[in-house]
Design goal:
The protein is mainly α. The protein is built from 22 helices and no strands. It is globular and about 60 Å long. The termini are far apart.
Length: 391
């Protein structure tokens, strides 16, 4: 049925994606094979792909998946679950405009509808789904109906757990973890949290479900609930750096700076050159208005990764707070050259212009912060700053 909905614009792209998968001996076609095929061939989506280099993306996607040199790849290369979902979602998107066949624009939007490497690259280029829909549909649409649904919304009762076999239980837990992960990637955090809770009613000590539930709570800004879970998880697996990093973030957000600093210092003892740990430790000091101390951590993070946009932005704002306005703005602009979708950097620029009395530039940058999701990610700070300007 789906094959009948594939338009003439998309068919050669799917054919090219299949060829790439065969040539690279991947043995499957994933959504990023579609993306590389779009970059290599003229199509309806081409006008939205001018920021991306086909050669670089070929090498990137080739490296994502190990080639099986011993395996003979036949023409019947299967789609991955994600690739199949992208095509089905494309059809949902096409129907929004009463189109009967899907094209590369629908498929590109479907790819950008969940968290992945392509979406990250578009965010860094400052290109959002609504930028594409404004051009194609003549109106801004941020989100189309998702294709992922929670597979269960009821907790497992004691009588159910009593009668199920160990094999069935393991399969059900795997299904729930996969579903919760997919929902998380589609930013359906409430649904993902529900599935995690359902899974935990069947397997109360499952570490993967508990950690994913904690991450969902962070995304929902329910920090109290996430804190309880993350503290528990660090006791169960104290060696898990990812959980500890999330816990340090929650401590920071909640104002427990010493607890956050202790975790980050421990992580840096284990990995002294980790640019993320260095940036987060610097930001921990920054939150406490210890700007001069924070600079050394941001600079070291940039020594380890000069293209890391976050410490560039943080260093710029710290420099501004230390009285170096021009240097600060220059560094923030450099960070935005690397990641135009960083709402925090646009907010920082807005604050600098607001402090200097340049209301027009302040509002321009605050609006860009909102465009790139500041409110959804961090809260109402930018809105309140804009209200202060309007008073």
């Amino acid at each position: 049925m789906l094959n009948k909905t594939i338009g003439t614009d998309l068919k050669p792209i799917i054919k090219e994606a299949r060829k790439l998968a065969i040539d690279w001996k991947h043995g499957f076609i994933n959504y990023d094979h579609f993306f590389v095929a779009m970059l290599k061939n003229e199509c309806l989506a081409s006008s939205y792909l001018e920021h991306f280099d086909a050669g670089k993306w070929e090498e990137k996607v080739k490296g994502f998946y190990p080639a099986d040199s011993k395996k003979t790849i036949k023409d019947s290369v299967p789609l991955t679950i994600k690739a199949g979902r992208v095509l089905r979602h494309s059809f949902t998107i096409a129907r929004f405009n009463k189109e009967k066949k899907i094209n590369t624009i629908h498929t590109l939007i479907a790819i950008l509808s969940f968290e992945n490497a392509v979406t990250q690259a578009f965010n860094e280029a400052g290109i959002l789904i609504e930028d594409i829909t404004k051009s194609y549909y003549k109106k801004e649409i941020k989100r189309f109906p998702p294709t992922i649904k929670p597979i269960r919304d009821k907790m497992f009762a004691a009588i159910e757990k009593f009668f199920i076999s160990a094999r069935w239980k393991n399969k059900k837990i795997t299904d729930l973890i996969n579903n919760a992960t997919d929902l998380y990637l589609y930013q359906q955090y409430k649904d993902s949290a529900t599935i995690c809770s359902v899974g935990l009613s069947l397997s109360p000590v499952n570490f993967e479900l508990k950690s994913l539930l904690a991450y969902n709570y962070v995304k929902l800004r329910d920090y109290e609930s996430s804190l309880t879970l993350l503290e528990e998880l660090t006791k169960i697996k104290p060696e898990d750096a990812t959980v500890r990093l999330w816990l340090s973030h929650v401590y920071d957000v909640m104002g427990n700076y010493d607890a956050a600093a202790n975790i980050l210092d421990q992580l840096l003892m284990e990995q002294p050159n980790n640019h993320t740990f260095l940036n987060n430790r610097g930001f921990n000091l920054f939150r406490q208005e210890r700007y001069l101390e924070s600079v050394a951590y941001f600079e070291k993070a940039l020594q380890q990764n000069p293209s890391f946009a976050y410490p560039l932005n943080n260093l710029g704002f710290a420099k501004y707070k230390l009285g170096e306005m021009e240097k600060g703005l220059s560094l923030i602009d450099q960070s935005l050259d690397l990641d135009k979708g960083n709402a925090f950097a646009w907010k920082n620029k807005g604050i600098i212009y607001k402090d200097q009395g340049n209301k027009k530039e302040a509002l321009k940058n605050f609006n860009l912060a909102l465009k790139y999701g500041y409110k959804e990610k961090y809260g109402n700070e930018v809105t309140l700053l804009m209200e202060e300007i309007d008073k």
